Amino acid sequence: MKDATPLLRAYLAFSAVAEPLYRQVQARRLRAGKELPQRRDERFGRTPAARPEGRLIWFHAASVGESLSLLGLLDRLLDRDPDLGILVTTGTVTSAALLADLLPPRAIHQFAPYDAAPSVRRFLAHWRPDVAVWTESELWPRLLHETSRREIPMLLLNTRISGRTAARWRRFPRLARALLSPFREIQVQEPALAALMRDLGVAKDRVAVTGSLKEELPPPLAKPEELASLTEALEGRRRWLAASTHEGEETVLVAAHERAFARKSDAPLLIVAPRHPDRGPGLASALTDQGWTVALRSRGERPGPQTGIYIADTMGEMGLWYRLCPTAFVGGSLVPLGGHNPYEPAQLGCAVIHGPEVFNFAGIYQRLDNAGGAVPAGDEKQIADALLRLQDSDAHARVTEAARGVLASGSSATAAAHAAIERALTG
Q1: Which of 94, 134, 152, 222 has the most CB atoms around it within 10 Å of its CB?
Q2: How does 56-80 read in b/e, with b if 16+ C-beta sit within 10 Å?
Q3: Which pLDDT score, from 0 to 100, does residue 286 have?
């Protein structure tokens, strides 16, 4: 990497001898269920999987959301080149399980190597990618350094960063510039990030604002039989969704629900889908203690006529909940986490309510808010008011139609990413 700072040189020196430490890290992660024992060697660059013949594009994604956002791009690349192979690396057990079901033929998943020099070198020596693509912003210095040293064309696509990372880059601009230096092209989701990169000294012609790959993905699927069953069970009952919520948000949302609808027999059903499903049992217990009648999906329970709150603590079912609920509060936005994407609910006709903390998706939320395609609400009273207003069919239709208009005029991030990869392959 160009212009390595003393801090970066120190990290690279540490990573050269860090593999024994990562073995201790892995042992702890194995005990915690955060690694798969049968695939532990992948984290050290060893694998029984063979490299496919022909050209290979390697995509690195941090976790579930980043890897799922790639699926449309992968399909496009593979459809247009029958001799191309794809390698996708991630770091979490959850992402591995989802990708096992969702990756197209000729695409392989591996766990990313730990950021120790021997592990990274084994990984690169085995897979020999023709192009390396990082998505969003998980930038491990040793992985970047070794890939660049082999003169593998490198791209950074669909890039977004957290507020914390942005503050760190501003504090250490030389370090940020060095980490970004190996990338031939950088495609970012938001104009503000492009401006930050230019301020850091990244050449203007290497950075382009292309929007988000998630904006062009098809909406998440739902099992037809489960959708039909729950629709029948809830026939005639109103409902709304608290989607991808985090600790502290459910308290506000449940209070807003009670403020808007009280605990009357004809109150809508509140479906809470926590971002981390393992929080489900604790949420159910706390709400039961408050006197709510709660059903928990992970226990196989279904919402009945007396159920006030249904905890949807499962993975991979957001398409079901968005289809069942005409209105959704998108979580991660009442706490300083930056929010979650509004594309999926908007695509499926949900009226989107969100809190003020949406810096991870600032551009799309601003477009939606300006067009009346989403409802900002920052506290219990504002959320309750929004829920009541969206009970009116005309008000609900205005929001959802405006959101569809915004999405229809959106980015062409997939086409831009595909073009960048083709340039890297041929040049």
Answers
A1: 134
A2: bbbbbbbebebbbbbbbbbeebbee
A3: 97
Q: Is the pLDDT score of 411 beyond 90? A: no
| Contact (Cβ atoms closer than 8 angstroms) between residue 364 and residue 358 | no
Least confident of 137-141, 201-205, 267-271: 137-141
**227 close to 320: Cβ distance less than 8 angstroms:** yes
DSSP state of 83: T
8 Å CB contact between 92 and 63: yes
Q: Which residues are known to be catalytic?
A: 66
| Token digits of residue 152 | 């593998």
Mark 372-395 as b/e (b = at least 16 C-beta within 10 Å). ebbbbbeebebbbbbbebbeeeee
Phi then psi dihedrals of residue 340, to 5 deg: -125, 165
Residue 372 backbone phi and psi in degrees, to 5: 75, 20
- pLDDT value of position 302: 94
CA distance linking residue 308 with residue 23, whole number of Å? 47
Q: Which of 117, 114, 61, 118 is nearest to 89 (CA)?
A: 61
Overall average pLDDT of the 265-283 stretch: 96
Supply the DSSP symbol for 123: H
- State how far the alpha carbon of 88 is from the alpha carbons of 42, 110, 138, 211, 364, in Å: 13, 6, 14, 21, 27
- pLDDT single digits (tens) 182-213: 999 999 988 889 999 999 999 999 999 998 88
Q: Specify which residues 245 forms β-bridges with.
A: 274
> Which residue, among 141, 144, 136, 140, has the nearest Cα to 160 in the 3D structure?
136
User: Is the separation of the CB atoms in 406 and 373 below 8 Å?
Assistant: yes
User: Would the pLDDT of 217 be above 70?
Assistant: yes
77's CB contacts (< 8 A; 6+ apart) are: 57, 84, 86, 418, 421
pLDDT class of 110 with cuts at 50, 70, 90: very high
pLDDT tens-digit map of 21-80: 999 999 999 999 999 999 999 999 999 999 999 999 999 998 787 888 898 899 999 999
- Report the distance separating Cα 356 and Cα 275, nearest Å: 18
Q: Are 37 and 109 in contact (CB under 8 A)?
A: no
Tens digit of pLDDT for each residue in 351-392?
999 999 998 888 889 999 999 999 999 999 999 999 999 999
Rounded to whole angstroms, the maximal C-alpha distance in the chain is: 66
* CA nearest to 85, candidates 97, 61, 103: 103
